[in-house]
TrEMBL record:
Protein name as annotated: SDR family NAD(P)-dependent oxidoreductase
Pfam family, one: adh_short
Organism this protein belongs to: Lentzea indica
Phylogenetic classification of the source organism: Bacteria, Bacillati, Actinomycetota, Actinomycetes, Pseudonocardiales
InterPro entries in the record: NAD(P)-bd_dom_sf, SDR_fam
Domain of life: Bacteria
Keyword Oxidoreductase applies: yes
Keywords: Oxidoreductase
Length: 244
């Protein structure tokens, strides 16, 4: 495991009150960071923020105004911002391959899984530039690297953000801003829901939220701009080798 000392640093975690988010917030706090927890669920965000001595912010990451306001609030509260983990996300919830497409649901999915990442990165970059650099980590998915026929629309959103991370990572590298993606397979959280009964545990061993926190720690220490990291049980992580 890579050792990381985040003493004096400030982190913002979106979806910080969910399964992966809570493990990440606890880990960042344990490593010394002061943490802002952003989530739609105000009560759960407050609970985890209080546990780690951080602050809770409730808001919808898909709304264009949320991320700029949150970054401003975090800078006002803590005086700086060093790490932004754009982690909030939802499942597709429909096939999305025929005339039964529920357009409202599809737009919501794109709002949370894709727009949020663009709004979050664009809002964070000026703050990180003022610091002389920083880290932006996006929770994508193995569905951002491979096809997941059980959820084509989720696959679409996660491929989109992996592509964005690869390109934005290179675009921002000279600013000292390291943008990376985490690409876990199945993680034991509420999001997994019914799919937990269906997946092949041999092909995709179930990960724990703490495995993702462990991988995040490695990526904060070793990640280079534009990389997408795959994660094994136990949290062992490695950069995915793209062709070309
Ligand atoms: P989760 O449902 O436990 O947590 C997601 C959190 O995001 C919840 O607290 C929820 O309230 C919050 N959220 C949802 N919509 C929001 C919005 N519009 N604004 C603000 N907050 C919002 O799920 P999780 O498994 O912890 O998911 C975290 C991330 O990990 C997601 O991006 C997900 O796609 C990704 N991921 C999950 C798995 C898995 O198998 N669970 C696998 C790969 C990637």
């Amino acid at each position: 495991m890579s050792t990381v000392d985040l003493t004096g640093q400030v982190a913002l975690v979106t979806g910080g009150a969910g399964g992966i988010g809570v493990a990440v917030v606890r880990r960042l706090a344990k490593l010394g960071a002061r943490v802002a927890v952003l989530d739609l669920d105000a009560a759960r965000a407050q609970r985890i923020a209080s546990e780690v001595g951080g602050i809770a912010i409730s808001g919808d990451v898909a709304a264009p105004s949320t991320m700029p306001a949150v970054v401003e609030q975090v800078e006002k509260e803590f005086g700086r911002l060093d790490i932004v983990h754009l982690n909030a996300g939802i499942g597709g919830g429909q096939a999305g391959v025929d005339a039964a497409l529920d357009v409202a649901r599809y737009r919501k999915l794109v709002g949370v899984n894709v727009d949020h990442v663009v709004y979050g990165l664009c809002a964070a970059v000026p703050a990180l530039r003022r610091q002389g650099g920083g880290k932006i980590v996006v929770t994508a998915s193995l569905a951002g690297l491979t096809a997941m026929p059980a959820d084509p629309l989720y696959t679409l959103t996660k491929h989109a953000i992996v592509g964005y991370v690869r390109a934005a990572g290179k675009a921002l590298a000279d600013d000292g801003i390291v943008v990376t993606a985490l690409c876990p397979g199945f993680v034991d959280t509420l999001l997994l829901g019914a799919a937990k009964e269906e997946f092949d545990a041999v092909e995709f061993p179930l990960l724990t939220p703490d495995d993702i926190a462990e991988a995040l720690q490695t990526v904060l220490a070793e990640g280079t701009p534009g990389e997408a990291w795959v994660i094994q049980p136990g949290g062992q992580a490695s950069a995915y080798q793209f062709r070309g």
